[in-house]
Automatic annotation (TrEMBL):
Belongs to the anti-sigma-factor antagonist family. Coiled coil: none annotated. This is Anti-sigma factor antagonist. Residues 21-119 form the STAS domain. It comes from Nonomuraea fuscirosea. The lineage of its organism: Bacteria, Bacillati, Actinomycetota, Actinomycetes, Streptosporangiales.
Amino acid sequence: MDDPEEMVCVVSMSVDGRAWIVQVHGFMDFRHAALLREQVDAVLRGAHVPVLIVDLSTVAFCDSSGLSALVYALRRCRNASTHLILTGVRGTQERWMTITGLSRIFDRRPNVTDALPAAAG
């Protein structure tokens, strides 16, 4: 990552045409959280996506705006009948999710590899 304050959301790949992976890098804060919302909207505007995996393993910082963007993603996925899975949640993100109770509503897996079976079945 060249600029640690830049968050780049990339829809990186399709898995068997049934899942999309959005990888989030850098800072997911009030300046950048809208990028995640935009990427989720872009993915869900296309053909039906049964599973959307949001990989947070390379997020350096996440504030309440970032958590809000994840809740937005969850709502949008539920409205689209898409299963949202978060991967790579750790450190401060994990603590905030536990404190706010969000850890109970998100399907979380340690990494993308562990999340892929949900896309297959």
